[in-house]
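Q: I have 464 residues here and want to know how they pack in 3D. Can you give me a structure?
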Amino acid sequence: MKRSGMPNRLQAFIIKMEKEGLPPAVIDTFAYYYKKVVAGETGFVFNKDIRSLNADEIENADNVGQYADAGKKVLKNVVMIRLNGGLGTTMGLKKPKSIIRIKNGKSFLEIILKQTQQNNVMLSLMNSFSTHQDTLSALSRINPPSPPIIFVQNKFPKILCDGFGPATWPQNPALEWNPPGHGDIYTALYTSGTLQYLLDRKIRYAFIANSDNLGATMSASLLGYFSENRFPFMMEVAERTPSDLKGGHIARHKDGNLILREAAQCPKDELNAFRDISRYRYFNTNNIWVNLPALKKVIEEYGIIRLPMILNSKTLDPRDESSPKIYQIETAMGAALSLFENTPAVRVPRSRFFPVKNCNDLLAVRSDCYILSKAQALISNPERKLAEIKINLDPKYYGPRDLFNERFLIDGVPSLVDCESLTVKGDVCFEKNVIIKGKVVITNTEKSQAVIQKGTVIDSDLTL
């Protein structure tokens, strides 16, 4: 429903963005979405407009091995771009998630640098305004032989729900802005000059992935499949499991193109269908392949990248529920499926998707359930014969990373290679060389901390 009678506040936003030094293309992009918000658009994608996909509509990565040689020939023409805008707030972090130690004493960033060095491909990082300076400091300490190309994600002003004017918060003006989602990568590549810089160096293909997903390494066969078929865009998808209910799924739009639907784009009364993994079987891993000349052509033809809108309603200060209600306009990188014709999705093994979103994931990846391959890819330990481990740590004692580190002392991550599931309730500290097997629940009902002593083997539930 159009919100009639609302004053046109767009000019106030334009002035604010100009004062911030944002490029005209970013301002035009925000204006495009702002008009949709004022007109009453929600960004919802309804079930009636999409259908689920059959297995034969998606190529299987197992069937593209013959393209590996072609991929190796064009490695010199590819850049790996990592989305490096996350602060890891779910783990209590105020620094970039990519600089925390994740495996073998190395950070995500250090491992990613090793990955690109071993593949001899160019690396680029898209930082956010929140992670940029800390990432530069980390790179200065690491001092890699080939520094990555860095560009910064843009930002959008927050919109007041009441009156649709610009949000103001004098006590912390930075909170007046929000990252516009990783869909901004295309505009940021262009406006930063990075896209042209890459094209001038004969870089034609970009492989884009999240910095917290160490399973997303360069694949010669996928690169060859992408380049030989001259696709403009390609998304890696995986089979959904019950743990993937929140992630965006792909579907076929009634116009014939593939489409990505995120949870925020689903009406509340259709959420059950959204979560039905037997209906919408494939989720977006956020591993994306882009043909850079094709991207430049689309941007220059339309002036801006018009991705489907995601409209999030939040409080201006996320930590203060009494602060004004605002809208955040965001877009998803994978939604570029709808920008191009002939855009395939490729079903990849779960091994290409190992994100670390919380301290449960952090424990799993630090443990011997996973190892780093010679190519610095995070892979399942061949000695593990069980399905993906399920970990549930008491958030009171293990939610923030600093509390997590205090309870898993130096060399204190237990062996979990033979563990099917681990639940820890209460305050428990682990000394080194602890081994946990099978399905285990460890419970401490006391207020004081319990300690699992070094060398302990646990193969059944334990109450301390």
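Q: Anything worth noting?
A: The longest strand covers residues 282-291. The domain at 360-463 is CATH 2.160.10.10 (UDP N-Acetylglucosamine Acyltransferase; domain 1).
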